[in-house]
Amino acid sequence: MILNKRIKRVLFQNKMQYIGLIFLVALSISLYSIFGSLASNFNEATDTYNNKTNIEDAKFLTLKEVDINKIEDMFNVSLEKRYEVDVDFKESTIRLIELSSEINKPLIIEGRMIKEGEIALNPAYAKANRIKIGDVISLGGYEYLVSGFVSIPDYIYPTKSLTDLMADPTKFGVAIVTSKDIKKYGDLTYFYSIKGDISNAKKYIDSEYKILMWQDIKDNLRYTLAKKKIEQLPQLAVKIPLLFLSLTFILLFVLLKRIIKLEIKEIGTLYALGYTKSEIQRHYLFYPIIISIFGTILGTLFTILLQKPLTDYYVFYFNIPVSPNVKYNFLLYGLLESVLILSLSAYVASAKLLKYSPTTLLRGKVEKDKIPIFANINLSRFKFKNKRIIEGIFKNYASYIWYIYSINTSSCWLCCKGFSRRID
Amino acid sequence: MSIKFKNVTKEYKTGTNSFYALKNVSFKANEGEIVAILGPSGSGKSTLLNILGEIDRATDGEIMFGDLNVSKLSDKELTKYRRNNVGFVFQFYNLIPNLTAFENIEVAAELTKSPLKIEEVLEAVGMLQNKNKFPQQLSGGEQQRISIARAIIKNPKLLLCDEPTGALDYNTSKEVLELLDKINKMYGTTIFIVTHNTSIASMCHRIIKLRSGQITDVKLNKERISPKEVEW
Ligand SMILES: Nc1ncnc2c1ncn2[C@@H]1O[C@H](COP(=O)(O)OP(=O)(O)OP(=O)(O)O)[C@@H](O)[C@H]1O
Ligand SMILES: [Mg+2]
């Protein structure tokens, strides 16, 4: 269609308007895909994390020393004893944990695994206390080289006591050292970690050794709090940007409708020339498609730029290694959704106009003058000019309310998001 | 193509009142004629022309284009008919902004299987040198010439002009009228011209007078003069 030659020119003439629309689409698509990828990466990461670390099913403490080999032989379980000790570092406490070999294997997030005389800390604590890899720190009279940052599966969310709800990385951190190093300290405590078919084993252990403390992993807040937050992420990741996306599209719907409405005369002319409704609509569908495509391209760029920093932010917070990969299917969904919804809005907007006869359209005005709902309000107190403004506002009350509502909602949403992040 | 209106009525309903923009309008026009529709403002001239051009529907009555009863056609069929047979010239030209003069004509040419040559038509309306200009860069008279070119590019059997000189000065108006006369001669197009201006009627073959939605007079113009001689 020759008519489509004007698309480029129209876009150029109304650059700012269309750039704004493209930007809005880009923003919501990138938000959607960043959070979507993040959630999906997190899910994969937790799966591999649980596999790699071989996380315990429960930890316990008994009155008498447990015969590990005997229980492992009798039941289908693995059992490991792990020492730990709290030491002071400046104003804070570090819990040194013995490097385990079977259950609750720590995962290095940055740097490398410890050797004798070396230590690896949880990254949030290290950051809060300005400890870097390669530093040498002294703990209870022994010096350690910091070899890396680590995630300990039963301490993903490192709280000091089992019942604490909030982790405070400035005050408390966890770290791993070798068995040999930890045994240098007095005052060692220990727990047994157990994994496998635990219910029968538990009964037997209680009768033989007398259980003092037993905690299933699902009751371990250090694990479940993190797990809950991770599980919330996909919901947050998909629902909120989806909401944002829908909001953007509703806004675009209104804007596109306005743009098309400005072309009533042209539509009427084309109609009078003999163009069919579907031909005219096809022309107007180009605008949303172009907006969608450029929006998605820009959105992809945003996503690629922001995926890594955002992932790093969350990784730091959750203490689990997560890949910063962009999942391109989210961008594809975004594109499809954008094309679909924007095309629909262009379609609806043009269909609404094409209902009218060409003569009506050629007059350049389809709406009957609205009778202001507040026509009865006595405006005589106001000056003429002000009166016109007030009347104008009430005439277009629906669209004003809509604009105010949508601007409010989207800005509120952005603010809340920012605030809640800061609080976390 | 000959045209026949039989008891054509256009009724507008506003609430419980109804208003007749046209009431029982009947007339005939022969193929190749230039027909003037005269009448005061609000008499229903545009309404008549729009119904003739199938961009508006009559409430009642019968419209024949040759042997074809167009009042019986569906909306789709009407669009198709309009697309091939009717050209429109509007008072305010209604060129599509953002398209050059040439492209504006192309837009209409695209609609028919055997359009005239765009260059030839541009030549005929004397606008060949302006073909790459955008409407905003053309004067009113020039825009109206392009608009006429756009209307005749599909070589329509029927050319409808609503106040084609309404927005133009005397000299430009006369040029446009000459152009319409030339097209009528060149292509044998039946042309309807809506106007307030009684002088314009003197260059037409047939004159239809309207008042308050009703025809007061239809007459053949025996002393037809050339548009050059039209004075007002
Ligand atoms: N959509 C409509 N609803 C109600 N009345 C209408 C509508 N369109 C036209 N009319 C009325 O029909 C009558 C005829 O209108 P029309 O436009 O045909 O007049 P006209 O002869 O072309 O006038 P002018 O010379 O001013 O262009 C007018 O009184 C007008 O108010
Ligand atoms: Mg009129």
TrEMBL record, chain A:
Subcellular location: Cell membrane
Domain of life where this protein originates: Bacteria
Spans through the membrane: 236-256, 284-306, 326-349
Keywords: Cell membrane, Membrane, Transmembrane, Transmembrane helix
Membrane protein topology class: Multi-pass membrane protein
Main location: membrane
Pfam family name, one: FtsX
Protein name according to UniProt: FtsX-like permease family protein
UniProtKB/TrEMBL annotation, chain B:
Source organism per UniProt: Caloramator proteoclasticus DSM 10124
GO CC, alphabetical: membrane protein complex
Keyword Transmembrane: no
Family membership noted in the UniProt record: Belongs to the ABC transporter superfamily.
Protein name (Swiss-Prot/TrEMBL): Putative ABC transport system ATP-binding protein
GO molecular function: ATP binding; ATP hydrolysis activity; transmembrane transporter activity
The entry's keywords: ATP-binding, Nucleotide-binding, Transport
Domain of life: Bacteria
Domain ABC transporter, first and last residues per copy: 3-232
